[in-house]
Protein backbone atom coordinates (compact mmCIF):
# COMPACT_ATOMS: atom_id res chain seq x y z
CA UNK A 1 0.00 0.00 0.00
CA UNK A 2 1.39 3.39 -0.93
CA UNK A 3 0.47 6.94 -0.09
CA UNK A 4 0.75 9.95 -2.35
CA UNK A 5 -0.03 13.62 -1.91
CA UNK A 6 -2.33 14.80 -4.68
CA UNK A 7 -2.89 18.47 -5.34
CA UNK A 8 -6.35 19.97 -5.05
CA UNK A 9 -8.05 23.04 -3.71
CA UNK A 10 -8.26 22.05 -0.01
CA UNK A 11 -5.83 21.07 2.71
CA UNK A 12 -3.23 23.60 1.61
CA UNK A 13 -3.35 22.20 -1.89
CA UNK A 14 -2.57 18.59 -0.97
CA UNK A 15 -4.68 15.60 0.03
CA UNK A 16 -3.32 12.15 1.01
CA UNK A 17 -4.50 9.45 -1.38
CA UNK A 18 -4.01 5.74 -0.62
CA UNK A 19 -3.49 3.14 -3.34
CA UNK A 20 -3.93 -0.53 -2.66
CA UNK A 21 -1.01 -2.68 -3.65
CA UNK A 22 -2.62 -6.05 -4.09
CA UNK A 23 0.60 -7.57 -5.40
CA UNK A 24 2.44 -6.74 -2.17
CA UNK A 25 -0.48 -8.04 -0.14
CA UNK A 26 -0.55 -11.31 -2.04
CA UNK A 27 3.21 -11.83 -1.87
CA UNK A 28 3.54 -11.09 1.87
CA UNK A 29 0.11 -12.43 2.93
CA UNK A 30 -0.61 -9.12 4.70
CA UNK A 31 -4.28 -8.05 4.74
CA UNK A 32 -5.12 -4.88 2.89
CA UNK A 33 -6.51 -3.23 6.03
CA UNK A 34 -3.19 -3.75 7.80
CA UNK A 35 -1.31 -2.28 4.86
CA UNK A 36 -3.62 0.72 4.97
CA UNK A 37 -3.04 1.08 8.72
CA UNK A 38 0.70 1.10 8.09
CA UNK A 39 0.26 3.82 5.49
CA UNK A 40 -1.82 5.88 7.93
CA UNK A 41 0.85 5.43 10.59
CA UNK A 42 3.45 6.79 8.21
CA UNK A 43 1.51 10.05 7.96
CA UNK A 44 1.68 10.86 11.69
CA UNK A 45 4.97 9.25 12.77
CA UNK A 46 8.33 10.01 11.26
CA UNK A 47 11.48 7.94 11.13
CA UNK A 48 12.57 8.71 14.69
CA UNK A 49 9.07 8.13 16.09
CA UNK A 50 8.81 4.66 14.54
CA UNK A 51 12.24 3.48 15.63
CA UNK A 52 12.38 1.79 19.06
CA UNK A 53 15.49 2.13 21.16
CA UNK A 54 17.46 -1.12 21.60
CA UNK A 55 16.33 -3.05 24.66
CA UNK A 56 12.94 -1.38 25.07
CA UNK A 57 11.19 -4.37 23.50
CA UNK A 58 11.82 -6.29 26.72
CA UNK A 59 9.51 -3.97 28.67
CA UNK A 60 5.73 -3.57 28.62
CA UNK A 61 4.64 -0.90 26.18
CA UNK A 62 0.84 -0.89 26.46
CA UNK A 63 -1.16 1.66 28.43
CA UNK A 64 -4.70 2.35 29.57
CA UNK A 65 -7.10 3.76 27.03
CA UNK A 66 -6.95 7.53 26.60
CA UNK A 67 -10.49 8.90 26.38
CA UNK A 68 -11.34 12.58 26.74
CA UNK A 69 -14.41 12.01 28.86
CA UNK A 70 -15.49 15.16 30.78
CA UNK A 71 -16.45 13.04 33.77
CA UNK A 72 -12.79 12.11 34.27
CA UNK A 73 -11.79 15.75 34.77
CA UNK A 74 -14.12 16.12 37.76
CA UNK A 75 -12.32 15.75 41.08
CA UNK A 76 -13.76 12.83 43.03
CA UNK A 77 -13.61 11.61 46.61
CA UNK A 78 -10.90 9.01 45.91
CA UNK A 79 -8.53 11.64 44.53
CA UNK A 80 -9.25 13.88 47.54
CA UNK A 81 -8.50 11.04 49.94
CA UNK A 82 -5.29 10.10 48.17
CA UNK A 83 -4.19 13.73 48.26
CA UNK A 84 -4.14 13.41 52.02
CA UNK A 85 -1.45 10.76 51.75
CA UNK A 86 0.93 13.07 49.89
CA UNK A 87 2.04 14.70 53.15
CA UNK A 88 2.67 11.26 54.64
CA UNK A 89 4.82 10.27 51.66
CA UNK A 90 6.91 13.46 51.84
CA UNK A 91 7.45 13.15 55.60
CA UNK A 92 8.22 9.44 55.27
CA UNK A 93 10.84 10.18 52.62
CA UNK A 94 12.54 12.68 54.93
CA UNK A 95 12.61 10.24 57.85
CA UNK A 96 13.96 7.46 55.62
CA UNK A 97 16.71 9.79 54.37
CA UNK A 98 17.80 10.71 57.89
CA UNK A 99 17.74 7.06 59.01
CA UNK A 100 19.87 5.80 56.13
CA UNK A 101 22.28 8.72 56.67
CA UNK A 102 22.84 7.60 60.25
CA UNK A 103 23.42 4.02 59.09
CA UNK A 104 25.96 5.02 56.44
CA UNK A 105 27.94 7.38 58.67
CA UNK A 106 29.00 4.74 61.18
CA UNK A 107 32.75 4.91 61.76
CA UNK A 108 34.74 1.73 61.33
CA UNK A 109 36.58 0.38 64.33
CA UNK A 110 34.26 1.88 66.90
CA UNK A 111 31.51 -0.74 66.96
CA UNK A 112 29.83 -1.28 70.30
CA UNK A 113 26.63 -2.96 71.36
CA UNK A 114 24.94 0.41 71.77
CA UNK A 115 25.90 1.35 68.25
CA UNK A 116 24.69 -2.01 67.01
CA UNK A 117 21.27 -1.48 68.61
CA UNK A 118 21.15 2.00 67.09
CA UNK A 119 21.91 0.58 63.65
CA UNK A 120 19.21 -2.06 64.04
CA UNK A 121 16.67 0.58 64.99
CA UNK A 122 17.64 2.92 62.17
CA UNK A 123 17.54 0.09 59.65
CA UNK A 124 14.04 -0.80 60.83
CA UNK A 125 12.98 2.85 60.55
CA UNK A 126 14.41 3.07 57.05
CA UNK A 127 12.55 -0.07 55.96
CA UNK A 128 9.23 1.03 57.47
CA UNK A 129 9.35 4.41 55.76
CA UNK A 130 10.53 2.98 52.46
CA UNK A 131 7.61 0.55 52.61
CA UNK A 132 5.25 3.47 53.25
CA UNK A 133 6.57 5.44 50.27
CA UNK A 134 6.35 2.41 47.97
CA UNK A 135 2.80 1.38 48.88
CA UNK A 136 1.23 4.85 48.93
CA UNK A 137 2.95 5.97 45.73
CA UNK A 138 1.96 2.85 43.82
CA UNK A 139 -1.65 3.00 45.02
CA UNK A 140 -1.93 6.69 44.16
CA UNK A 141 -0.51 5.97 40.72
CA UNK A 142 -2.85 3.02 40.15
CA UNK A 143 -6.00 4.76 41.37
CA UNK A 144 -5.44 7.81 39.18
CA UNK A 145 -4.83 5.67 36.11
CA UNK A 146 -7.93 3.58 36.72
CA UNK A 147 -10.15 6.59 37.35
CA UNK A 148 -9.19 8.03 33.94
CA UNK A 149 -9.34 4.73 32.06
CA UNK A 150 -12.89 4.92 30.72
CA UNK A 151 -16.53 5.67 31.41
CA UNK A 152 -16.56 3.34 34.44
CA UNK A 153 -13.18 4.59 35.67
CA UNK A 154 -14.44 5.94 38.98
CA UNK A 155 -16.32 2.74 39.85
CA UNK A 156 -13.33 0.55 39.02
CA UNK A 157 -11.04 2.91 40.90
CA UNK A 158 -13.39 2.67 43.88
CA UNK A 159 -13.25 -1.13 43.67
CA UNK A 160 -9.45 -0.93 43.59
CA UNK A 161 -9.33 1.52 46.51
CA UNK A 162 -11.67 -0.65 48.65
CA UNK A 163 -9.97 -3.96 47.79
CA UNK A 164 -9.04 -5.88 50.93
CA UNK A 165 -5.38 -6.25 49.99
CA UNK A 166 -5.02 -2.63 48.87
CA UNK A 167 -6.82 -1.31 51.94
CA UNK A 168 -4.80 -3.42 54.39
CA UNK A 169 -1.48 -2.45 52.81
CA UNK A 170 -2.48 1.23 52.84
CA UNK A 171 -3.25 1.09 56.56
CA UNK A 172 -0.04 -0.83 57.16
CA UNK A 173 1.94 1.81 55.25
CA UNK A 174 0.56 4.77 57.20
CA UNK A 175 0.95 2.94 60.51
CA UNK A 176 4.56 2.14 59.58
CA UNK A 177 5.30 5.82 59.17
CA UNK A 178 3.60 6.99 62.37
CA UNK A 179 5.12 4.27 64.54
CA UNK A 180 8.56 4.68 63.01
CA UNK A 181 8.89 8.12 64.61
CA UNK A 182 9.08 6.79 68.22
CA UNK A 183 11.44 4.03 67.06
CA UNK A 184 13.61 6.64 65.37
CA UNK A 185 13.89 8.72 68.54
CA UNK A 186 14.47 5.61 70.66
CA UNK A 187 17.30 4.52 68.34
CA UNK A 188 18.81 8.00 68.50
CA UNK A 189 19.20 7.57 72.24
CA UNK A 190 21.60 4.67 71.59
CA UNK A 191 23.58 6.87 69.22
CA UNK A 192 23.81 9.60 71.86
CA UNK A 193 24.91 7.09 74.49
CA UNK A 194 27.61 5.79 72.16
CA UNK A 195 28.87 9.34 71.55
CA UNK A 196 28.88 10.32 75.25
CA UNK A 197 29.85 6.96 76.69
CA UNK A 198 32.80 8.39 78.59
CA UNK A 199 30.67 11.20 80.01
CA UNK A 200 27.87 9.30 81.66
CA UNK A 201 26.80 12.32 83.70
CA UNK A 202 25.85 14.00 80.43
CA UNK A 203 24.67 10.87 78.61
CA UNK A 204 22.23 9.48 81.19
CA UNK A 205 19.81 12.42 81.45
CA UNK A 206 19.86 13.06 77.70
CA UNK A 207 19.22 9.43 76.82
CA UNK A 208 16.52 9.16 79.48
CA UNK A 209 14.78 12.23 78.04
CA UNK A 210 14.90 10.78 74.50
CA UNK A 211 13.52 7.42 75.63
CA UNK A 212 10.66 9.08 77.54
CA UNK A 213 9.99 11.30 74.54
CA UNK A 214 9.73 8.27 72.28
CA UNK A 215 7.21 6.69 74.63
CA UNK A 216 5.25 9.97 74.73
CA UNK A 217 5.21 10.13 70.91
CA UNK A 218 3.82 6.61 70.81
CA UNK A 219 0.95 7.50 73.15
CA UNK A 220 0.28 10.74 71.25
CA UNK A 221 -0.02 8.76 68.03
CA UNK A 222 -2.40 6.28 69.63
CA UNK A 223 -4.48 9.06 71.21
CA UNK A 224 -4.98 10.92 67.95
CA UNK A 225 -5.84 7.69 66.12
CA UNK A 226 -8.46 6.83 68.75
CA UNK A 227 -10.01 10.31 68.54
CA UNK A 228 -10.23 9.96 64.76
CA UNK A 229 -12.03 6.62 65.08
CA UNK A 230 -14.49 8.12 67.56
CA UNK A 231 -15.28 11.04 65.26
CA UNK A 232 -15.73 8.74 62.28
CA UNK A 233 -18.12 6.56 64.27
CA UNK A 234 -20.07 9.69 65.23
CA UNK A 235 -20.42 10.61 61.56
CA UNK A 236 -21.96 7.24 60.78
CA UNK A 237 -24.09 7.35 63.92
CA UNK A 238 -25.55 10.74 62.99
CA UNK A 239 -26.13 9.67 59.39
CA UNK A 240 -28.26 6.68 60.35
CA UNK A 241 -31.35 8.56 61.72
CA UNK A 242 -31.50 10.77 58.63
CA UNK A 243 -31.05 7.79 56.31
CA UNK A 244 -33.82 5.89 58.11
CA UNK A 245 -36.06 8.96 57.98
CA UNK A 246 -35.60 9.35 54.23
CA UNK A 247 -36.20 5.66 53.72
CA UNK A 248 -39.47 5.82 55.68
CA UNK A 249 -40.63 8.78 53.61
CA UNK A 250 -40.32 6.74 50.43
CA UNK A 251 -40.71 3.05 51.25
CA UNK A 252 -41.44 2.19 47.62
CA UNK A 253 -38.47 4.18 46.32
CA UNK A 254 -40.59 7.16 45.10
CA UNK A 255 -40.89 10.53 46.81
CA UNK A 256 -44.19 11.33 45.13
CA UNK A 257 -45.33 13.47 42.20
CA UNK A 258 -45.44 17.26 42.03
CA UNK A 259 -49.08 17.43 43.21
CA UNK A 260 -48.41 15.43 46.38
CA UNK A 261 -45.21 17.35 47.13
CA UNK A 262 -46.71 20.82 46.82
What's the arrangement of secondary structure elements?
Layout (H helix, E strand, L loop, with lengths): L1 E6 L6 E6 L2 H7 L3 H13 L2 H4 L26 H28 L8 H35 L5 H9 L2 H32 L4 H50 L8 H4 L1
Antiparallel strand pairs: 1-2
Helix pairs in contact: 4-5, 4-7, 5-6, 5-7, 7-8
Describe it:
This protein is mostly helical. Helix content is 69%, strand content 5%. The chain has nine helices and two strands. The chain has a two-stranded antiparallel sheet. The longest helix is centred in the last third of the chain and has 50 residues, at 200-249.
For the structure shown, list the relevant keywords.
262 residues, mainly alpha, disordered C terminus
Regarding quaternary structure, what we see is single chain
What are the segments in which pLDDT stays under 50 over at least 5 consecutive residues?
A: 1-25, 258-262
Mean pLDDT: 78
CA radius of gyration is 31 Å
Distance between the termini: 69 Å
Percentage of residues in strands:
under 5%
Shape: flat
Topology order in helix (H) and strand (E) letters = EEHHHHHHHHH
Total helices: the number is 9
In total, the number of strands is: 2
Portion of residues within helices: 55-70%
Strand order of the largest sheet: 1-2
> How would a textbook summarize the main sheet?
2 strands, antiparallel
Structural class: mainly alpha
Amino acid sequence: SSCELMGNGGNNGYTPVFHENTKEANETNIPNNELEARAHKGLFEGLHSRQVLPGLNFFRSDSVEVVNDPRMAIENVIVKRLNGFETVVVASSLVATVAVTVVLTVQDGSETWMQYFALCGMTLVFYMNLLCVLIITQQYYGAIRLSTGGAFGFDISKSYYANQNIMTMRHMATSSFFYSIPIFLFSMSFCVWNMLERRKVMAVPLCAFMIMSSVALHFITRKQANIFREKYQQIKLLEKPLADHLENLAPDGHLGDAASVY
